[in-house]
Amino acid sequence: MDVKEAVASAKAYVNEIFAPEKIENVGLEEFEFDRRHREWRITVGFSRPWQGLGALNTATGITRPRSYKIVTVSDSNGIVTSIRNRE
């Protein structure tokens, strides 16, 4: 599996698993391949529309806070094996 396939798998999984929250602006933040475990670690960022902006942010044009998830994708079969918060 190449990085493009791993990223597509991670983003599709995030979109699917967080669909009830109606997330927005899903995007790749970073990626890494772990040769020892033969898995991709893809960081995906997104915004949640229910996270308030506040008056100051709205006036200055600052966007919603983003959430960042590290999605682990198996290199051998493209299956997502974990998702966790990025510290």
Keywords:
87 residues, 2 helices, single chain, four-stranded antiparallel beta sheet, elongated, 40% strand
What do these coordinates show?
This protein has two helices and four strands, in the order H-E-E-H-E-E. The protein has 87 residues and is of the alpha+beta class. The chain has a four-stranded antiparallel β-sheet, covered by helices on one side. A hairpin with a 5-residue loop joins strand 3 and strand 4 (80-85). It starts with a helix and ends with a strand.
Strand order of the largest sheet: 1-2-3-4
Put simply, the count of helices is 2
Distance N to C terminus: 27 Å
Q: Structural class of the secondary structure composition?
A: alpha+beta
Tell me the helix content.
25-40%
Biggest sheet descriptor: 4 strands, antiparallel
Strand tally: 4
Q: If you average the pLDDT, what whole number results? A: 88
Write the layout of secondary structure elements.
Layout: H1 3-17, E1 24-34, E2 39-47, H2 54-60, E3 66-74, E4 80-85
Antiparallel strand pairs: 1-2, 2-3, 3-4
Concise overview:
The protein is an alpha+beta fold and 87 residues long. It has helices at 3-17, 54-60, and strands spanning 24-34, 39-47, 66-74, 80-85.
